[in-house]
Design a protein that fits this description.
The chain is of the alpha+beta class and about 260 residues long. It folds into two domains: about 100 residues; about 150 residues, Beta Barrel (Thrombin, subunit H), CATH 2.40.10. The protein is built from two helices and twelve strands. The strands form two sheets. The protein has a six-stranded antiparallel beta barrel with strand order 1-2-5-4-3-12. A six-stranded antiparallel β-barrel has the order 6-7-8-11-10-9. A hairpin with a 4-residue loop joins strand 4 and strand 5. The mean pLDDT is about 75.
């Protein structure tokens, strides 16, 4: 029964195929071709094209997602770069302040040890500060100390990791100095209130307001040519052996933060 059914189906299929081939050869199937070409085929093309568009869209979405990730990474790198630039700018600003405080332009040809002021004088009579460097940095008594391009004092007590700086404004301060413009020599003496006096200037020596006073390098460990200040007024009397000159001092003990100890 089943074999007969399959045989019948095969016969029908063969007859159908033969009929279609015959009709095709006779040209009787052109309406079917026309209908296929004008309905089914275009719809299939649209479906295929739509599939390609969907694929392209998915690809574009993937690319957009990758670009978003890349943009996020670049923004993070830019933020980090801006932070580093800001930090570098801040460091550069601090370095400029430090160089200005230490007077590096004036002391560029000499050796020095940079230090920080950690304490100031306890009273108004004695003028000194303490710094955080000492004999461990090969510092010794008598070494000159600079700040803001000017001599502010000399080391008077050196410990292992600290040292006391007697300021030029201390009444007991004494140092050989000279008028850099005329080479007139004298002794720099500290004055209460921040003033400085260049004493023991010969009567025949020429000194005048506005002249620059520097260290003379005579005696002790202080080298010559360190800037001290400018002459404000001159006291010259005919009945005395020496004349003197008053200097303007820029030393403000409580404003000192960074200093440079000049090595001989």
């Amino acid at each position: 029964m089943r074999r007969g059914s399959w045989r019948n189906r095969i016969v029908v299929l063969v007859a159908t195929v033969a009929c279609i081939v015959g009709l095709e050869r006779l040209g009787a199937l052109w309406p079917v071709h026309w209908l296929w070409g004008h309905t089914v085929a275009p719809i299939g093309g649209l479906i295929a094209g739509g599939g390609q568009d969907v694929g392209k869209t998915l690809t574009n979405w993937t690319r957009i997602k990758d670009l978003a990730v890349e943009n996020s990474r670049l923004e993070l790198e830019n933020a980090n770069l801006r932070q580093r630039l800001a930090a570098d700018a801040e460091t550069q600003r601090d370095n400029e302040i430090l160089r200005r405080e230490l007077g590096l332009a004036a002391a560029s040809v000499i050796r020095q040890v940079n230090a920080e002021v950690v304490a100031a004088a306890p009273d108004s009579y004695r003028q000194y500060v303490w710094i955080n460097k000492g004999s461990s940095e090969n510092l010794k008594n008598g070494y000159a100390v600079m700040s803001a391009g000017s001599l502010i004092g000399v080391l008077s007590e050196v410990q292992t990791h600290a040292a006391r700086v007697t300021l030029v404004s201390d009444p007991d301060f004494r140092l050989a100095a000279k008028d850099q413009d005329t080479n007139a020599a004298g002794i720099l003496i500290g004055q209460l209130g921040g003033g400085l006096v260049l004493e023991k200037i010969g009567q025949s020596d020429s000194v005048k307001p506005g002249d620059t006073v520097t260290t003379s390098g005579l005696g002790g460990e202080v080298p010559a040519g360190l800037y001290i200040g400018q002459i404000e007024s001159v006291d010259a009397k005919s009945d005395v052996v020496f004349q003197s000159a008053r200097l303007v001092s820029m030393v403000r003990p409580r404003d000192l933060r960074f200093v440079a100890v000049v090595l001989p």
